[in-house]
């Protein structure tokens, strides 16, 4: 399932872009941040429920990126980061 998340996030992400701490200014930067979060999540052993929630959150973030709603995408990214950090 995580490979599917990585692939979904990678589809629109370029390999260059701003770090997550910086605000995205282009859809590619924003999608790169989503991709980075998916990679970070892959390192955690998340439950199936958490994986489903993460997939939905990443999809929401990617939709914000595509719509150039960078503030909303950043908020989603912060929520995703918090979820990943809370995972054991």
What does this entry look like structurally?
Helix content is 70%, strand content 0%. With 88 residues, the chain is mostly helical. Helix 2 (27-42) runs antiparallel to helix 3. The chain is elongated, with a radius of gyration of 12 Å. The protein starts with a helix and ends with a helix.
Q: In summary, what is this structure?
A:
With 88 residues, the protein is mostly helical. 70% of the residues lie in helices and 0% in strands.
Keywords:
single chain, 88 residues, mainly alpha, 4 helices, 70% helix, elongated
| Largest sheet report | none
Estimate the strand proportion: under 5%
Rg over C-alpha atoms, rounded to the nearest angstrom: 12 Å
Number of strands: 0
- Helix run count: 4
Compute the separation of the termini in Å. 18 Å
Q: Would you tell me the overall average pLDDT?
A: 81
- Which residues sit in consecutive blocks of at least 5 with pLDDT less than 50? 7-21
Order of helices and strands: HHHH
Structural class: mainly alpha
Please estimate the helix content.
over 70%
**Oligomeric grouping of the chains:** single chain
Shape: elongated
Question: What is the topological layout?
Answer:
Elements: H1 2-11, H2 27-42, H3 48-66, H4 70-86
């Amino acid at each position: 399932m995580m490979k599917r998340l990585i692939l979904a996030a990678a589809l629109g992400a370029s390999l260059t872009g701003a770090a997550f701490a910086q605000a995205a200014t282009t859809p590619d930067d924003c999608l790169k941040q989503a991709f980075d979060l998916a990679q970070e999540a892959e390192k955690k052993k998340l439950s199936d429920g958490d994986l489903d929630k993460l997939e939905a959150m990443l999809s929401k973030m990617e939709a914000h990126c595509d719509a150039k709603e960078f503030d909303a995408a950043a908020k989603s990214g912060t929520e995703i980061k918090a979820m990943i950090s809370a995972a054991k």
